[in-house]
Amino acid sequence: MIRQPNDMDPSRKFRIFAGGVVAAEAIASGYLTVAGLLDPGGLVPGGDSAAAKTYAAYVATRSLVLLGALIWLMAVRAWRPLGLVFTLNAAVQIGDAAIGVAHHQLAQTAGPLVFAALLLAAARPLGGLTWNPEGRSDGDMPAVAPPHAPVGQQEGLHRGPAADRRTSLEG
């Protein structure tokens, strides 16, 4: 397995902010996941039907996978993948807000929009909102050279703090 060094280490202040976002998302989404599984009728009218219970189980699976990824990536300090998962979670929250708008429910619109804003604010410094698949070129993170670019001919690449570290091969 080829291991790449972690090319960016966010500030302590940002790590605390990101940890707070992960904790808030885990608590809020975790609560709604458990509530939806135990009593779907308590969340929405008509939620006691078999179809609603089945759908609640599908939603719980999605939530548990996304929350598990957030918690794991934060714990192992995998900053760039965490930025992507923050962005994916924000997209889910924006979709939830759209559902709230469609059903004229203020709380189900405002809550997800607040979480989406927090998630996007946490994603941006980690590169989660970067569209360039070869990495950021704004100096915050070293860009990754395309595999076909010969050494020394990778224009526009910036060296990051870990650029001098060598990758290691582990079997």
List the helices and strands and how they pair.
Elements: E1 2-3, H1 12-38, H2 40-43, H3 50-75, H4 79-102, H5 106-123, E2 168-169
Unreliable spans: 1-5, 141-146, 154-171
Largest beta-sheet details: 2 strands, antiparallel
Order of helices and strands: EHHHHHE
Q: Please, what is the average pLDDT?
A: 77
Q: Total strand count, please? A: 2
Oligomer: single chain
Walkthrough of the structure:
The model is unreliable at 1-5, 141-146 and 154-171 (pLDDT under 50). Helix 3 (50-75) runs antiparallel to helix 4. The chain is mainly α. The protein is built from five helices and two strands. It has a two-stranded antiparallel ribbon.
Brief rundown of the structure:
The chain is mostly helical. The chain has five helices and two strands; from the N terminus they run βαααααβ.
Features:
mainly alpha; about 60% helix; disordered N terminus
